[in-house]
Amino acid sequence: MPELTAARQRWTLLAVCVGQAMILLDVTIVNVALPSIQRELGVTPANLEWVINAYCLTLGSLLLVGGALGDRYGRKRVYIVGLTLFTLLSAACALAQDDPQLIAFRALQGGGAALMAPLTLAILVDAVPPERRTTAIGIWAGVASLGVGLGPVLGGVMIEAFDWSAVFWVNVPLGVLGVALALVGVRESRDPDARRIDPVGTLLVATGLFLLTFGLIETNEHPWTSAHVLLLLVAAATLLALFLVWEHRVSHPMVPLSLFRDARFGAANAVYLLAYVAFAGMLFLLTLYFQNVRGWSALKTGISWIPINIPFLLITPFAGRINARFGPGRVSAVGVLIGAVGMFGFTQLELGSSYLAVWPFYVLVGAGFGLAVPAVAAAAMDAVAGAHAGAGSGILNSSRQIGTTLGLAVLGSISVAAVSRAWDDRIAAFPPAIRDHADSLVQRVAGGEGQAVGRVIGSQTTRPAFEAYLSGLHAAMWVAAACMLAAAAIAVLGLRSSRT
Questions:
Q1: How does DSSP assign 42-97, residue by residue?
Q2: How large is the average pLDDT for residues 107-112?
Q3: Record: fold of 261-500
């Protein structure tokens, strides 16, 4: 295709940035609204989790399908369909009268996001020539980060001014703007060799990813070694293995496995997955630390994340120059190493730590991801033939989504295990009447709810509960730092060349 004018490239960049920001804004803004939703709709704790999980399940399950549909039927067309669905279902969520309605609409909204997410990057790769691509991807990543960071702040303000439904209504004007920009600014592109969508492959990969995501979510309620979790994970692994076998056999696979012949593509996905394991676990555990242990409001906690976004936004516009000068392997490795230092810093938090002891580590994490994310995404998409951009972007987005879910599950489990040991040690000297009830409160201790524990079994247990929570946070952050170090090693070895 002929190269687009600079003005058309800017319109395309703006259009996909709006869509990507909406997807990631929705991830954090809804979390802030959960207490309000629980009160006003009378939602049980179990169902409240599904307000988040239903969205994650359909998004994680259908990302690869969304990329394949875009390659086959047109990326602009499928992206606009996904954005329209996402917007309409946001309005439906805002109008929900009870929790079953809200959960159902959230699941469908995740489907709309799955059509959008893999195609924002694919559309950008088609529109921007290689010499300017990393800079454009850096801006795309920076706007996405802004969506994550603004979510808690915007959500807190809107809930105080209106009610919980406002966090869904905000998507409507953004969606209308996004559709208008896409219609005007984005050109159509597709894989000219794509055939009809393979129903067997689609069913295998969607079901396999669904069971994998569901199994990881269920570790919040069941042990990793429980039959329930193991059955889900084994079934997921079996279906995904069958999907790979099937893709090798069909003449026109839904996901071209030839993409992984280039070492950069596989390495980029591994770096993405490990980095978001660490990032998701960090945000989750530090949110509990500040809101439950330190007693901060959701709005104050959201504002405290601003130091993560500032360096990200300052660095990403220069990503192209940095990447061209030093290469994606070095830039990615340095970025995740800086992020690892930030994760290590959180292992030093104490009960009385002030925000002054925290924000420098937020800055390091933001700077690290600001360097790494554009470099990793650019390396991955450079390794993908333009015709397969939708599939390649879908795989990369799946790595991030699985990494996020895995981070919450694995780092959450590590935290709970460490909390349980520390809690047992701290209550050993208490009277039997307290010890007898302590075991049933481990989950509340692991959630940082020391005040609630103190109300149940005595105020003298509040501080030990907080100290036990901190032990779990430290253990999880050590693992997060290790994940970042592993990602750095993969970036150095796998992103330095295109050899298999």
A1: T--HHHHHHHHHHHHHHHHHHHHHHHHHHHHH-HHHHHHHHHHHHHHHHHHHHH--
A2: 93
A3: Growth Hormone; Chain: A; (1.20.1250)
- Sorted by where each begins, the domain ranges of the chain are 1-197, 199-253, 261-500
pLDDT confidence of residue 194: 63
Contact indicator for 267, 492 with CB cutoff of 8 Å: no
Angle of CA points 259, 197, 12, to nearest 5°: 65
**And the tokens for 125?**
């790769």
324, 134 contact by CB (below 8 A): yes
CA distance 1 to 3: 6
What CA–CA distance (Å, rounded) separates 84 from 109? 10
HEC-encoded secondary structure of 163-185: CCCHHHHCHHHHHHHHHHHHHHH
Question: Average pLDDT for residues 379-404, to the nearest whole number?
Answer: 79
The amino acid present at 8, given as its one-letter code, is: R
What six digits make up the tokens of 441? Answer: 């409160």
Per-residue confidence (pLDDT) for residue 46, from 0 to 100? 60
**pLDDT above 70 as % of the chain:** 96
Tell me if the domain spanning 1-197 has CATH number 3.10.129.10: no
Reported as a single tens digit per residue, the pLDDT across 136-189 is: 888 887 777 777 777 777 887 888 788 889 989 999 999 999 999 999 889 898
pTM of the model: 0.84
